[in-house]
């Protein structure tokens, strides 16, 4: 199973830098993952996601998105976001996915 993580911010630009760092961390660990970044206004164009991570500047839309999506939605820690700490953000997303049971079928093969 490939994890599908979407990051969203006001324009999709700052999160795209974080995506690069997250992909590097995933590659080092050999994790099969798809990570993309978009403007929060484009989220409705995507389905089949496992988790949505919001940039701190758009964290206020989390309750609205939780009504639209039936997947975990988290706001990225402001310090981790500012430091572009892709490894820590990836770890937190993976922790949420594991708690939700996403990817369990892959582990049991």
TrEMBL record:
CDD domains: PTS_IIB_chitobiose_lichenan. The keyword Phosphoprotein applies. The keyword Phosphoprotein applies. GO terms for biological process: phosphoenolpyruvate-dependent sugar phosphotransferase system. PROSITE patterns: PTS_EIIB_TYPE_3. Pfam families: PTS_IIB (PF02302). The modification Phosphocysteine is found at residue 9. Gene3D superfamilies: 3.40.50.2300. One of its GO terms (molecular function) is kinase activity. Keywords: Kinase, Phosphoprotein, Phosphotransferase system, Sugar transport, Transferase, Transport. Residues 2-103 form the PTS EIIB type-3 domain. This is PTS sugar transporter subunit IIB. It comes from Bombilactobacillus bombi.
